[in-house]
Structure to design on (783 residues):
């Protein structure tokens, strides 16, 4: 979805955080400060002990400054706005629908979407689906005529396709342990990444 | 229990080599080179105060009258020395009183550490007596903070906190320690190495960007250097001077850049922004390359951003990458230490001059200076504020070995405009946060850091009434080298000025009464001088300076004097009012 200015209205941000108490508060506080609403937030352990991976969806046009400020937090190892990257995005939904004589129709919708029947109760069915946000949205719409009693979603998780660009182990092995300060111009200058023209 | 067992000094480790958490904090502070801290005790921080007594030969504690004063004193110490200032408070209201100085230090990138006591870990979250979630409260105004519940964590946390406070872009760090963690014993491990993500440290400079920036700047027709706080914080003032002299590029400063470049220098133009001189803001609007080194394009500097430096390609050097491109689009952004960047640029830059451009700016200056508000003295026996600043400037020219702390408001701008600043860390003020009440406690910190120098406070009667209680702290600590000049106009003057100029002179909530300041000074046991006539100002300042002891001078100035020029809030820096009725 594009706004009048041509920026996407929704941004997906992926971050690696040290798994410390309060780190989520610090990250979310930067969005709250600007009055940004978080559309979804999913956070859990990554492949490396002590590092969490977070996927954040923010419905705002300009998140560049927020991404930079997130990067400034001590416990944030890496932050990327992956909105324009080729990503796989998934959500899990649990949905409880009213099921009477229409049970067969519900089952056929579930099969069509590849959803699992997690539980069948007295007059209810509990379905489980994992899929892209669009698929999950479509599934919900398709179920709504039956009567949705309850629905809960995990929030989006995203991963960039192809070679890993967000390796937690690499980041964790690159910690400051001592801080030699260069003295001469030769020592200061390198071919290191700079921050060039933002225009 | 006998008295001796109750008060037994426990500095020596126990038989097993263990120490209390409170002792470990003291030990860690000594290891970080801390010599002085400012604070107020209370229930949850009492174990630390108990241990502090054993370390009193190495760690001086200054008892302040309000935690806000303790925080600003730590800032004053940090800003004048470049070292980390330390303040201490108890839980609850003690900790919340530190919120203002922490926010102030955050906005002005001042390295301070706040150590606060917290209720026992078992009572956390129960609304216990004097419990406040200070780590939650201070998340947006600290570089980082810690809630320490385990005594084992103390040595590492203090080490990391000091590293964070002074590395990269300096700033405040808070360490909240539960009472039980202060009391528990542990065998300390001091050798645990730092473990922080690498990109938080200042990396090496991007050679390509530094080369391109140097070529763009030196090759420009109308280049301008804008020096900010980063030049002072990095210790780069002499590199800046060498670079400016080698390239012949004129230099302007921000408020916090005052002292980064001597204002007596032929290449110095002065301060820009809301209350900058006309020729300085005109130079920004005419320049073709603007080189901002260590400043953050505060809105008081840029005015309306879309009209700021319209002809310029902007080069921005900042130690904090999140500042680059935040306010203005940059042609070249360099993440780097200001001194390191200047050192490299100095090597790369060919000797050059920009005399024609400098002459053009001086022409603008000559055109506008006669119309500047303070050029002529109105024919009145009333003491004008600029009489006082002229007297102060004369006194400062006669001496060295002084620093000046200003508060917030009209007097702060008059001081910035009318005193010729020369040395790094000699002009201390609250810039980003604009904290009234900053100056007197900050001067306490500066005075204890530099007992051989004279610390002048310039403060309005509004700010004076916010934190003058710290004069009592100075008296108790036998501080004798602080001289306080109160620019007393009986108003919250800057707000009154805005009301006069922009709100039809509706002086809503700005008229201010106060005590007789000389009598109040005497009540504190210090000398008070009242000055009501222009001809008495020089003598009062000389007398205060030569006196061995604290002096408060009550300058009763014209009540409705204004700061000019002024760029109305939200307007372009091209639109400067030079009097209440005339624009430049």
């Amino acid at each position: 979805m594009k706004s009048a200015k041509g920026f996407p209205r929704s941004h997906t941000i992926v971050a690696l955080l040290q798994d410390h108490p309060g780190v989520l508060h610090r990250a979310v506080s930067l969005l709250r400060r600007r009055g940004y609403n978080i559309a979804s937030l999913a956070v859990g352990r990554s492949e490396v002990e002590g590092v969490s991976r977070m996927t954040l969806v923010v419905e705002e046009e300009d998140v560049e400054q927020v991404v930079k400020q997130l990067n400034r937090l001590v416990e944030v190892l890496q932050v990327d706005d992956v909105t324009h990257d080729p990503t796989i995005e998934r959500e899990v939904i649990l949905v409880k629908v009213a099921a009477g004589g229409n049970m067969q129709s519900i089952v056929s919708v579930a099969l069509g979407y590849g959803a699992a029947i997690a539980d069948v109760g007295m007059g209810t069915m509990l379905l489980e689906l994992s899929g892209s946000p669009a698929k999950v949205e479509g599934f919900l719409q398709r179920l709504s005529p039956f009567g949705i009693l309850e629905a809960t979603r995990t929030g989006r998780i995203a991963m960039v396709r192809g070679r890993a660009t967000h390796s937690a182990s690499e980041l964790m092995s690159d910690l400051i342990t001592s801080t030699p300060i260069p003295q001469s111009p030769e020592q200061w200058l390198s071919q290191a990444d700079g921050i060039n023209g933002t225009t | 229990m006998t008295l001796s067992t109750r008060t037994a000094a426990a500095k020596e480790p126990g038989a097993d080599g263990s120490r209390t958490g409170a002792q470990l904090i003291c030990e860690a502070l000594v290891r970080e080179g801390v010599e002085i801290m400012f604070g107020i005790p209370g229930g949850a921080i009492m174990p630390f105060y108990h241990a502090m007594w054993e370390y009193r030969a190495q760690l001086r504690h200054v008892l302040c009258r309000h935690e806000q004063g303790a925080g600003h004193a730590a800032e004053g110490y940090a800003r004048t020395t470049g070292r980390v200032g330390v303040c201490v408070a108890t839980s609850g209201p003690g900790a919340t009183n530190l919120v203002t100085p922490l926010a102030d230090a955050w906005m002005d990138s001042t390295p301070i550490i706040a150590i606060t006591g917290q209720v026992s870990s078992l009572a956390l979250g129960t609304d216990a007596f004097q419990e406040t979630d200070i780590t939650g409260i201070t998340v947006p105004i600290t570089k980082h903070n810690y809630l320490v519940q385990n005594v084992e964590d103390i040595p590492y946390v203090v080490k990391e906190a000091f590293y964070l406070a002074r590395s990269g872009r300096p700033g405040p760090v808070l360490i909240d320690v539960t009472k039980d963690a202060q009391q528990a014993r542990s065998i300390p491990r001091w050798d645990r190495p730092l473990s922080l993500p690498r990109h938080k440290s200042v990396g090496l400079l991007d050679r390509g960007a530094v080369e391109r920036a140097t070529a763009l700047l030196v090759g420009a027709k109308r280049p301008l250097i804008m020096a900010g706080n980063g030049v002072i914080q990095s210790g780069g003032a002499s590199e800046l001077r060498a670079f400016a002299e080698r390239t012949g590029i004129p230099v302007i400063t921000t408020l916090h850049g005052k002292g980064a470049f001597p204002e007596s220098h032929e290449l110095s133009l002065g301060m820009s922004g809301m209350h900058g001189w006309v020729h300085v803001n005109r130079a920004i609007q005419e320049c073709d390359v603007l080189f901002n080194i260590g400043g953050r394009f505060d809105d008081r500097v840029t005015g309306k951003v879309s009209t700021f430096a319209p002809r310029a390609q902007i080069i921005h050097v900042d130690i904090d990458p999140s500042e680059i491109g935040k306010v203005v689009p940059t042609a070249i952004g360099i993440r780097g230490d200001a001194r390191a960047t200047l050192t490299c640029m100095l090597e790369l830059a060919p000797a050059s001059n920009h005399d024609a451009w400098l002459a053009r700016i001086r022409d603008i200056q000559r055109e506008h200076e006669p119309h500047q508000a303070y050029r002529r003295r109105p024919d009145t026996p009333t003491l004008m504020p600029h009489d006082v600043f002229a007297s102060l400037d004369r006194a400062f020219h006669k001496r060295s070995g002084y620093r000046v702390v200003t508060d917030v408001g009209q007097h702060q701008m008059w001081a910035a405009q009318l005193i010729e600043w020369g040395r790094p860390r000699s002009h201390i003020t609250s810039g980003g946060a604009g904290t009234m009440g900053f100056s007197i406690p900050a001067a306490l910190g500066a005075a204890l850091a530099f007992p051989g120098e004279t610390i002048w406070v310039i403060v309005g009667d509004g700010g004076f009434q916010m934190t003058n209680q710290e004069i009592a702290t100075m008296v108790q600590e036998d501080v004798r080298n602080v001289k306080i000049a109160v620019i007393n106009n009986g108003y919250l003057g800057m707000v009154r000025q805005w009301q006069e100029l922009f709100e039809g002179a509706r002086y809503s909530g700005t008229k201010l009464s106060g005590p007789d300041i000389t009598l109040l000074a005497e009540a504190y046991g210090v000398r008070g001088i009242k000055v009501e006539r222009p001809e008495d100002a020089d003598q009062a300042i000389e007398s205060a300076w030569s006196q061995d002891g604290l002096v408060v001078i009550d300058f009763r100035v014209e009540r409705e004097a204004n700061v000019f020029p002024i760029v109305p809030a939200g307007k372009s820096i091209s639109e400067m009012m030079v009097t209440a009725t005339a624009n430049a």
